[in-house]
Amino acid sequence: MGRKKNLAKHSQKNGDNQHGSTSDIDTDYDGMNISDDPNAIEYKIIHAKHPFEKRKFIESRVVTPSQRAITCCIQMNNGWASAADLLQFLQNNWSFIGKLNSKLPNNMPDTRILHINLAVKKKNIPLFIQDPNKPHYWTVNSSTDFAQLQDKTKYNIPNQQPGEVSKVEGEVTPDEPTSLEEIYKMENKDSFEAHIHEALKSYEHGVTLEELAEATKKHEGEPGLFQILPHVRRVRAVLIVKKSIGEVFEKNGVWTCYTEPTKIPEVAHTDFYPACLRTVDVTELTLDEFYNIIKSSKV
């Protein structure tokens, strides 16, 4: 193990001098010690720098400990990491990450917390982006050109409601969203996904993806979820999201807003009779005949 240094002083010196930005280490960490061994995981987390920090697009202090740890994990995995790997990394190192911010919750981070951090935007640009071909794999975003990001269809950009505030890490910043499910449900009435949902309602008996995409062509490129995707793929992505939260339904390639009414099977009154009486017309039986049938069948 390498020799120990005060975390606050050590990180501020390296972070500020090397990158010219304000370190996210504050006086809450005075007294903490960390190895100066570059191979130590704590050292790697503290010194992991997002491309936005290196380019001075944002100040280091706006990157939360969890987001820095996510950046670290991605960098340690050659630029890409699965959501499962990221969550495991956060959980494995939470005893250390939690000490970097006294306002962090003590409970172990879960998938919801991970997705909240992955969806964070700074100056309306996402910190992290995902591969549409492998939607569970994430990388750090190195582009600060939103128009350029929109032109690219290689990556999926997680959507975030503007103005939403999250206090997941005890901080209040306009860039933090709520949970992804809440974002989907709190859609703006003029958003792309709202228009898709409204159009789908007009098809009482359902519609195929291609037909719905053609019918909503006029809304192509409008603000909303998955804005950088081509129109048909974007419609499909919106439908899949809404299907996951029970707002739309799909069967054999046909999409609808309406569930099929449950058909109650017709039941004949004779179905309630004992087996010995189902083949006879009980209305034609005398009382004695009825009694003898019941008696002989030992019902």
TrEMBL record:
Location of the region described as Disordered in the Swiss-Prot/TrEMBL record: 1-31
Superkingdom, taxonomy of origin: Eukaryota
Biased composition (Basic residues): 1-12
Residue ranges, compositional bias (Polar residues): 14-24
Protein's UniProt name: Uncharacterized protein
